Amino acid sequence: MSAQPVAQAAEARGTFGGDMDKGSGPVTLRMIADEVGVNVSTVSRVINSSDKEARRWASSDMIDRIRTVVAARGYQRNPHAASLRTRRSGLVGVLVPRLQDFVLATVYEGIEEAATEQGISTFVTNSLDRPENQASRTELMLSRRVDGLIFGDAHTGDPFLDTLAKRGIKFTLVSRRSGDHISATCDDIMGGRLVAEHLLATGRRDIGILSGRDYASTGNDRTAGVVQACLEAGIRIRPERIVHGGFDAPGGRQATERLLVQGGCPDAIFATNDFAAIGAMGVLRDRGITVPDDVAIVGYNDTPLAAELSIPLTTIHSPMHEMGRAGLNLLLAMLRGEPVESVRLAPELIVRASTAS
C-alpha cells in the first residue's frame, strides 16, 4: 500500500481525544465531514492549509464552517498521518553562531513564532562560527529528516552553502547573507550609510570602524555603507581606521585598543554591534576620553541595553524579530515550490546621547 492511501486512511480514522455529541469515541475527519456535509478530503485540505491555500478547495463560508466545527468538537491533527501524506517531517533545523547572542536569539524567536503559526516545529543548534561545526551539525539535522534549514551563521566566500544547494537541500539565511542564496536580512549597507550621514552632520570627520568578523556580511556591509557615504561627502576613511574583531564587548574592547594604537584617537567610532560599542566605551572611559565630547559612539542593532547605559547609545535599529519570521516564511514558500526572492528589511537610526554635540 503506498504512502498516500495509508495517510488518507490514517487521517480519516484519526487519533483524537474529543467527543462528538452523537455518542462517544475519538473525533475523526469523517465525522467532521459528515456534520458539515462535505467529503473528507475537503476537510483535510482546509485544516492542513493556510487561508490562501484553503480557498483553492472551498469557499470562505465553507472554510469558516469547517473550522468552527473542528474547534467545537476538539479535533486535533494526526501528525503521523500528515507526515505520510506530505512526505515531510514538519521540522526545520536552525543553525546560529551562539544562542547567547541577543541578536540571534531574537531572530530565532521570530523563526519559532512564525513556525508555530504554521504548525511547524523547529530546533536550534550552535556552530560557534566554526566551519567544521557548521558542517557536522548540518548533517546531524539532516539525519533527523528536517524539511529544510535556516542558517544564521553564513560565512562570506565559504563554498559550504553552494555544496548544500547542489545536493538539493532547501535552506534560507537570516541575519547574514552569502552569494545568491535566499536570505532575510537587514539592509546593512543602508544602515551604514545612515551612521555616516549622522556622524558627518554632527561635524565628525575622523571615523574609526569596529568592523566585526571579516567573514560576516553584516559587519562588512555596514562598514561598506559608512565608507561609501563618506567618499560621496569627500572624506576618505583610512585603512588603519577599520579594525576587525569580535561582535561582543571583549571583541569591541580589543578592537578599540588596536584602533587607538594604529592611528591615535578618532573623533567618532562606529561599532557594527551594540555590544562591541559597549566594549569601546570601556576603553575610552579607562583612558579618560569622554563620550560624546571627545569621541562620538554609534552601535548597531538597538538591543535593549543600548538605551539603558549611563550614556545612552546611538544605534541602528535592526528588525531582528521580523527577520526571523521572514526567513521561516521564505523557507516554507521554497518548500511549496513557489518562486522566492531575498528580503532586505529597512534599518532605522536611533539617536541618543552618545553622539550628542
TrEMBL record:
<keyword id="KW-0805">Transcription regulation</keyword>
<keyword id="KW-0804">Transcription</keyword>
<feature type="domain" description="HTH lacI-type">
    <location>
        <begin position="27"/>
        <end position="86"/>
    </location>
</feature>
<dbReference type="InterPro" id="IPR028082">
    <property type="entry name" value="Peripla_BP_I"/>
</dbReference>
<feature type="region of interest" description="Disordered">
    <location>
        <begin position="1"/>
        <end position="21"/>
    </location>
</feature>
<dbReference type="Pfam" id="PF13377">
    <property type="entry name" value="Peripla_BP_3"/>
</dbReference>
<dbReference type="InterPro" id="IPR010982">
    <property type="entry name" value="Lambda_DNA-bd_dom_sf"/>
</dbReference>
<dbReference type="InterPro" id="IPR046335">
    <property type="entry name" value="LacI/GalR-like_sensor"/>
</dbReference>
<protein>
    <submittedName>
        <fullName>LacI family transcriptional regulator</fullName>
    </submittedName>
</protein>
<dbReference type="InterPro" id="IPR000843">
    <property type="entry name" value="HTH_LacI"/>
</dbReference>
<keyword id="KW-0238">DNA-binding</keyword>
